[in-house]
Give the backbone structure.
Amino acid sequence: VYMVDRTVVGGFYRIHAERGPDENLNAPGMKFLPLPFDKSCMQPDQAIHPDAAPNRYYVYGVIARLALLAASLELEQARP
């Protein structure tokens, strides 16, 4: 997931057609598949299925924002 400030602006899936779900994707034949963000995913869309793309992307954004917060706390604590 790519972010500008705290806003998710895009991302990609890493895929490998010859690898299983529990195998390392970092191998020859790996490809990147862009996440098709058609509209903002800052709020979940309750009118559609929870696993629909906009709602999945919303969850990815929540995780990305939490990771950004955790990284900022780690940087602050690492200051001499």
The first strand starts at residue 2 and ends at 4.
